[in-house]
Each structure stands twice: as C-alpha cells, then as structure tokens.
Design a protein that fits this description.
- With 49 residues, the chain is mostly helical.
- It has one domain.
- The protein is 84% helix and 0% strand.
- It has helices at residues 2-8, 11-14, 19-48.
- The radius of gyration is 14 Å and the shape is rod-shaped.
Length: 49
C-alpha cells in the first residue's frame, strides 16, 4: 500500500532533507486517505438502506 500512496503524492512531499519529518507527513496523509475511504464506505452503506 505504501508504494501505491507514495506514487500519488507530489515529489516535494515524498522526498526531503529531514526524512523523519517527511515520513511523519506521509503517514499522516495516508491516515487521512484511509479515514476518507472509511467515511465514503459508511456513506455508501447508509445510502443503500
């Protein structure tokens, strides 16, 4: 999954001089994307009812 998400992020987000901060930023973005996917799934289930 990481390679897939990293490939859609802009290069300035996926590379930097401070790898620790860049890693934290990537992880935060991944978590946001996961939460959005969960919300979309919940909305789709609610709409089906």
């Amino acid at each position: 999954m990481r390679a897939g998400l990293d490939s859609i992020l802009s290069p300035f987000i996926t590379s930097g001089t401070n790898d620790k901060e860049m890693h934290a930023l990537r992880e935060g973005i991944k978590n946001i994307i996961k939460e959005i996917a969960k919300m979309d799934l919940a909305a789709a289930k609610k709409q089906k009812k």
